[in-house]
């Protein structure tokens, strides 16, 4: 353990002596998070544009409900070209296009497709997650009504819906409860934006540690460490520890900035902290695996950035996991990002405690352990093969 | 029960083999080093010195062979047995952005030296390698020779039973070089076992109790300087600076008893002869009689360079 600390300390001391390195590890990500925080944070109300040309009952219902959501600013438009242009210009975060004859289509018993327009880089996806929720509620109600019509329990859809609404008075109480949490859920979509960025950036910058390990190998000091009575696992654990502390500091810093400057609520703090700690260990473990596999630090830098962004996207850091298809959501959970985001989502949206995120934490710790052991094995091979 | 009267050699390695692809880098190397003994591996570039040493230090997988240090086997996964070894790699292995003292403290911890002893030991080592004045300077501000000295100092920190030095004087100015050689001599005299690789014949002659001559991955001869030189026989090389009919003089010299060979050159004749001093008068007379004018004589006793030439037909340095 003393050796692990000695190696970790040396790695931090050396990092601190390198101004440029400090800039890349602390200043740059902070600047980025602040810039993105301004976009994502509650400082700006996202704008939603609805294209609605009909005046049917169902269509009006959707429009009204969307207008009533106060986390975004909603505008009604009547021309599709106008919507497209506004989204392209960044005047709208999301355009919702309700197809012509929406009510007619539904009345005919056919599914009506609602179209979403968003720029890939904006916060449109977060807005979409909320809109989708509202539309899904309506779709469920209509499906229930149709069921009654088909079963001959109601003469037409309007009558059936009346029955559904009447029948769900009991359910409605539950729904009231649901409704009371739904502002939370909508706000949460934006708070999760901060979590998404935290996870994305912690991972990307943790991977920068891979270059440090490659340089140590190039310097011959890694080999020299293995010539002392020190195992490869100890060396890798030590190098991981040093960079882990750096990644952790960075993660905490981002979390604090998000909370203080943008009012992000991280939920139960000790649990949020645990997720950040576990995720920092995963990021640095991955860095060690890259650092002991590649022998060119620039090559590793490229791979690191590619992996950092790629896994981030797959893991739900850019587009929220909720709007992934169920299959993609499963695939997303090969990344540690998805698990960290699940944990944050429970903490932020559902006021969860430690007990509720134990699974996620265990998976993250498992990721970190496997990565570090693999890295230790690769590290020894890279020197002794 | 083992035989306790026989001390275990500090290093025993046997039949080491290692190939890289098709290239055989080490092909059956084996030797042993006793306590207080300095053993030299003398060989040209690419002979397999570093590869052998890396296997011995447990830093490189081997295809075959065995290594034990003070009776404990060493492999790439060994941890504890490495405490007995101090390795000074051929390439510098120090942190450029740390000071000499910080480098030493760091590796001292890895060698498991306790904190109290360590600070004192770091200063002792800095004293030994002559860097105490530069203790707190970053090593990227050091000269090449100073970096080399620190590189050696790290290997000495924990007073290992076996110190392995891989060409420690390459690219070092004569003054630093002499300082390095002197400290190695002192360590050997203090009872440390030293494994020293070099392609400088003079270093091997000066430092080593025994020398293994290595070429193309094999130890082609081993022994004390005297034993190795005896392989060439008791022959000296005599260089006669001369003018006149050198070819005729060389032929006449070859006819003399004890002369193995005489080759006319540009303004000189090279003669290989058994005990030159006893036959010098005879040789001069024969050369003069054959029509040469001798203006100078140099006698060279055989050295390891000659041994290497004799055994491999190659010069030690290219
Ligand atoms: N990692 C490696 N991959 C491929 N070939 C290698 C490797 N290491 C050494 N070799 C080859 O093995 C042979 C022996 O190399 P080694 O470094 O042991 O020689 P050396 O005696 O230390 O030479 P020098 O005096 O130049 O340091 C050389 O032909 C070298 O090219
Ligand atoms: Mg070498």
Description:
The complex is a heterodimer of chains A (385) and B (318). Chain A is mainly alpha-helical and 385 residues long. Chain A has 2 domains: 236 residues, no CATH class; 138 residues, 3-Layer(aba) Sandwich (D-Maltodextrin-Binding Protein, domain 2). Helix content of chain A is 73%, strand content 4%. Chain A has 16 helices and 4 strands. A 4-stranded mixed β-sheet of chain A has the order 2-1-3-4, sandwiched between helices. The longest helix of chain A is centred in the middle third of the chain and has 39 residues. With 318 residues, chain B is α/β, with parallel strands linked by helices. Chain B has 2 domains: 220 residues, P-loop containing nucleotide triphosphate hydrolases (Rossmann fold, 3-Layer(aba) Sandwich); 67 residues, Alpha-Beta Plaits. Chain B is 34% helix and 29% strand. Chain B has 10 helices and 14 strands. In chain B, strands 6-7-8-3-9-10 form a 6-stranded mixed β-sheet, sandwiched between helices. A 4-stranded antiparallel β-sheet of chain B has the order 2-1-4-5, covered by helices on one side. In chain B, α7 crosses α10 and α8 crosses α9. The longest helix of chain B is centred in the middle third of the chain and has 16 residues. The mean pLDDT of chain B is 90. Bound molecules: adenosine-5'-triphosphate and magnesium ion (MG).
